[in-house]
Amino acid sequence: MMFSSPEAWREFFETYYQKELNTLADKILTDGRKEKSIYVNFLKDLFIFYEGRIAEELLEYPDTVLEHASKGLELSYNIHDVRLENCKARIVNLPQTRRILIRDLRSEHVSKFVAVEGIVRKVTEVRPKIVKASFICLSCGNEVFVVQDDNQLKQPYECKTCNTRGRFVFNPDNSIKVDSQRIKIQEYPENLRGGEQPQTIDVFLEGDLTGKINPGDRVVINGIVRARTRGYGSRKTPYMDIFIEGNSIEVLQQEYEEFEITQEDIEKIMELSEDPDLYKKITDSVAPVIYGYDKIKLAIALQLFGGVPKKLPDGTEIRGDIHILLVGDPGVAKSQMLRYVHRIAPRSVYTTGKGTTSAGLTATATRDEVDGRWTLEAGALVLADKGIALVDEIDKMRAEDRSALHEAMEQQTISVAKAGINAMLRSRCALLGAANPKYGRFDLYSPLVEQIDLSPTLLSRFDLIFIMTDQPNPDHDRRLAEHILKTHQIGEKLEMMKHLSIEAAEYRNEYKNIEPKIDPQLLRKYIAYAKRTVFPVLTKDAMDRIIEYYVNLRNSSKESSVTITARQLEALIRLAEASARLRLSDEVTVEDVNRVIDVVEASLKQIATN
Ligand code: ADP
Ligand code: MG
Questions:
Q1: 333 C-beta closer than 6 A to ligand 1
Q2: CA of 349 to the centre of ligand 1 (A)
Q3: Ligand 1 contacts CB of residue 336 (under 6 A)
Q4: Using CA atoms, how far apart are residues 428 and 440, in angstroms rounded to an integer?
Q5: Name one GO cellular component term (predicted).
Q6: pLDDT of res. 491
Q7: Relative to the CA of 103, which of 19, 262, 311, 595 has its CA 20 to 30 Å away?
């Protein structure tokens, strides 16, 4: 015996949703569209009705209960006295316990109502789908209807009028259609631990749910888990694919922050912010296993914090995100650096220019192999929105990305206009790229632009470009070798300790310099907290210092091959803001400016040797 019934739902709607019933009836009267829905708040309303029994039944037997809800809508009273036919109850706000991670979806969830959270990776264009197909019998000319549910169009078995199993022709005009769209959602990048590949799931949407979301949106999909056998016809296998039949979508605020910072965390963050060695500690934590490169590590630390984005009175936006490019010989730890940043950044996406995935760096519109629909897929910079995109071998990127990257880096949007798809996606992220020189080794005496497969305009989008060369230098080489050997040694010992359970502290002490100074978990929280709450402003002195430096730089660059433009000025401001943010200060001081001038000089000096 179930508590749910069309009558119970009628009572529910009339008790809690009378206003919505009237509005819905009004809408149907004015624009006559058939597909309409009422949003039901699970926790707030359904859960207190009949002591939550119907809510529980919905989770267990969603097909039956949602059917009751639709019938209940039809029975419900409204002031316009309109029959609410073909209306749907869309359920939102499920309890946290019902939120299932994509990677945890199992056969036990099939046919159950769940909520799945993720970032939208792909959307197809919206196209009609036949739910009830009309056929004409060629023997007697009568019409036969067949309800459709699978991917293949189902033919009638026989004609009920003339009782023959003759031939039929499909009659699309008389068939009943709904709008349909397929999307793919993917786990949040920030919930993946180093190196894990994000998992995805397909979601099928119909009616008024279609055409509402874009790749890059963060959503909760509430719906029924379905399983379908793989293959078609005689090639069907017993293995099943699962997907979700969407009942409702909740688009999360872009500003929504996933990981929680407790009062206790804030105390630790405050304590750390007052550490006299703060800059060194954070810099050293960027990639402790990599020897040297202190300026680059400081630059990356500043990039993690970022400058303050601004909106001008005319509506144009200036990015706060800092873009950095590492160029250099093979084997100088560029890739390693990127992978490490991936581990400590609060939100980051790691990819290579060659692209292991089809979507590349920006976005791609392709025709789907299965159903021929145009599909828009988000690339790394869209998925990294509000975070950092780590792009190794960026010089190997696809031609489409080359042209789209200019807009993506500066305006932080990606416009797509292709076939049935017109969209503008957001890419508000910082970019840390690595590139190898075209001819294998970097030649310090030829210009940078000639040695790397990136256009000068694209290069000018980077706030900082560092050249990492591998020049033999006995003193440096010895220390580097010692550092790497130590890393390997401690790696081995940690492995051993797992078996022998020897106190780890002893070894930590011995190899302090390759242990991160700050616990990565705390560092991620520290960065997230700073980005969320600190928006530093330049002091008068800081401004004067920036102007002075900029004018001098312009002046001295007259004879050199490096062109200094207003872009460098903006870069300086962003870096100085990041420097203030790093110590949670609301004011950018002269010390901040001097600190970042040092970093800028380090990057310019290398390029100036061209
Ligand atoms: P790249 O991407 O620049 O070609 P990788 O990141 O793949 O180079 O590095 C090659 C190897 O050399 C890695 O195992 C890395 O740890 C090591 N290596 C190179 N330079 C350093 C360094 N400065 N400190 C520690 N390890 C280094
Ligand atoms: Mg590499």
A1: yes
A2: 20
A3: yes
A4: 33
A5: MCM complex
A6: 61
A7: 262
Contact 572, 549 (CB under 8 A): yes
Task: Provide the 10 A C-beta neighbour count for residue 113.
Answer: 24
pLDDT bin (cut points 50, 70, 90) of residue 554 is confident
Q: What is the pLDDT of residues 103-150, one digit of tens each?
A: 899 889 999 999 999 999 999 988 888 888 888 888 888 888 888 876
| Ligand 1 contact via 486 beta carbon (within 6 Å) | no
In angstroms, rounded to a whole number, what is the distance separating the alpha carbons of residues 341 and 363?
23
The closest ligand to the CA of 484 turns out to be 1
List, for residues 412-437, the tens digit of each pLDDT value: 999 888 777 788 898 999 999 999 98
How many angstroms does the Cα of residue 178 sit away from the middle of ligand 1?
55
Domain at 102-251, CATH from 3.40.50.360, 2.40.50.140, 2.40.30.110, 3.90.850.10: 2.40.50.140
Q: Which residues lie across from 307 on neighbouring strands?
A: none
**pTM, two decimal places:** 0.81
Looking at the domain 263-608, which fold is it? Rossmann fold (3.40.50)
Domain ranges of the chain: 6-93, 102-251, 263-608
> Is the distance from the beta carbon of residue 322 to the nearest atom of ligand 1 less than 6 Å?
no
For atom 6 of ligand 1, the residue with the nearest CA is: 333
Top mean-pLDDT range of 131-135, 347-351, 583-587 = 583-587
Residue 349 is given by DSSP the state E
Distance 357 CA to ligand 2 centre (A): 18
- Residue 470 in contact with ligand 1 by CB distance below 6 A: no
The Cα–Cα gap between 254 and 289 comes to: 34
The C-alpha atoms of residue 154 and residue 175 are separated, in whole angstroms, by 13
Q: Given ligand 1 and candidates 329, 332, 354, 469, which is best to mutate, with the most ligand atoms within 8 Å of its CB?
A: 332
Instruction: Find where tokens 């760096």 sit.
Output: 361
Q: Which residue from 594, 602, 605 is spatially nearest to 572, judged by alpha carbons?
A: 594
User: Best mutation site among 336, 341, 478 for ligand 1, i.e. most ligand atoms within 8 A of its Cβ?
Assistant: 336
Provide mean pLDDT across the span 350-356.
76
Average pLDDT over residues 525-547: 93
pLDDT band at 517 (very low <50, low <70, confident <90, very high): confident
pLDDT score recorded for residue 508: 46
Q: Is the CB of 297 under 6 A from ligand 1?
A: no
Instruction: Report the C-alpha gap between 187 and 577 in whole angstroms.
Output: 32
Bridge partners for 241 per DSSP: 228
The DSSP 8-state label assigned to residue 196 in this structure reads P
Which residue lies with its CA nearest to atom 16 of ligand 1? 333
Q: Which ligand is nearest to the CA of 326?
A: 1
In terms of Cα–Cα distance, which of 193, 345, 195, 332 is closest to 282? 345
Q: What is the mean pLDDT of residues 168-189?
A: 87
> Per CATH, which fold does 6-93 belong to?
mini-chromosome maintenance (MCM) complex, chain A, domain 1 (3.30.1640)
- Give 51-82 pLDDT, tens digit per residue: 899 999 999 999 999 999 999 999 998 888 88
* CB-ligand 1 contact for 291 (6 Å cutoff): yes
